[in-house]
Amino acid sequence: MDRALRVTLPESLSEVAGAVLMDLLGPFEVEDGPALGGAKRYVTLVFFPTAGTAPDKEELLAALPPGSVDPEDVAVDMREVSRDWVEGWRDHFRPVEIGRVRVRPPWEPAAGAPGGCAAPHSAGPRHATPVDVVINPGLGFGTGLHPTTRGTLQLLQLRKPQGPVVDAGTGSGILAIAAAKLGWCPVEAFDNDPLALISARENVEANGVQGVVRIHETDLTGAPDAWFAGTTVLANMTLEPVGALLRKVGSAGGAAPDGVVPDVAAVAGVVAADTTAVAGAAAAGPPHRLVVSGILAGTQECRLLEVARDCGLAPGRRLYEAEWVSLELLPVTSRRKRAVRLSTGTSKG
C-alpha cells in the first residue's frame, strides 16, 4: 500500500499550488474535488510522498505565495492507496529540451544513444547536439518540468557563457549543472535544505561536473558577498527570497561606476579559490547579471521590479509562461542613470 496526500483547493489556484508543492512532494495527479461550499470549483492534487516527507496543512499553506489562498478553502488529508507507484511515478518524467539543454531522468537514454529519442516537450529551438543534463527527480526538487526552471534556463542561454555563476537556492542543482555544461565556470551553488543538498550533490556527481560546481550548505545571509561580484546569478525561488537576494547584492556593491564591468577573469580566480579566502576577498561588487524566477506575473512582478530599481538593477529580457515570469536584471551604471534623468527631464543640470 502507498500513502496519498490529498490537497483539495479552488481550481483557479491549482496550477500555482501544484507547481510550488511539486518542489516539496514530487509529481502529482489531479482529480475533480468535492464541493466545499459556494460556487467555486475545486480540484484535488494527489501526491505520493516518500516516508517522513508529508507536511501538515500549516506547512503546505506556508509554502504557497503569501495571500494566494484562504486557509478555509483548503482541505488536506492522507489516505492509503493501492497503486503501482514506481512505474506511475516515472510516467511523469520525460526528457525536456530547453534551448540547447536536454534534461532527462537517469532511466531515459541520452539523445543519440540506443533507444534515445527527441524530447516530447521543448522550450525554444532544438539543437543537433543538445547539452545532456541528468536529473534524478526522486526527492521532488527541480526537474525542468516547471515553467520557472524553463524560463531561467532559456534566459541564461541568451548570452554567451562567460565567467562564474552563482546558483542561489540550488534545489536539485539543475541550473548549476546546466550552466557548467554550457561553459560557465566556476559555479558556486548553495541551499540550506539538507534534502536539496543531497539531491544536488548526487546530480552534480552523476553529470561529472564536480570539478566545476561546488555545493555549499548555507542560506542567503551566510553567502559571502564576494561570490556575487562580476558573476551571473541564478535564483529560481519565490518573491521574498529573490527580493532579499536583490537587496543583498545591491548593498554589497551597488552599480558599477560609469559603465565599468568588473574584471570577470579576475573574479573567477577569486571565486575558484578556497571559500574562506573568497569570504575575505576585496573583490566584492555587483553581479554582472541576474536571472530570477519563481515570480508570479502581475502584482509580484511589479513589486520585484520596485525592489530591483531601489537596488540599482534594471530589467532586461522577460519570459512569461502560464502565471509565471522569469526576468533578467542588469546593474544600472551611473552613466545610464544620468541618461535616464536627462531623457525624463529630471536632471538638475
Q: Any overview of this molecule?
A:
With 349 residues, the protein is of the alpha/beta class. It has a 7-stranded mixed β-sheet, with helices on both faces. It has helices at residues 14-25, 57-63, 85-90, 147-156, 174-182, 194-206, 239-253, 264-271, 275-279, 299-310, 334-343, and strands at residues 2-10, 28-32, 42-47, 75-81, 96-98, 101-104, 121-123, 131-134, 165-168, 187-191, 213-217, 232-236, 289-296, 313-321, 324-331. Helix 4 (147-156) runs parallel beside helix 5 and helix 7 (239-253) runs parallel beside helix 10. Helices cover 31% and strands 24% of the residues. Mean pLDDT is 78; it is low at 114-122, 253-283 and 334-349. The chain contains 11 helices and 15 strands. The longest helix is centred in the C-terminal third of the chain and has 15 residues, at 239-253. It is globular, with a radius of gyration of 21 Å.
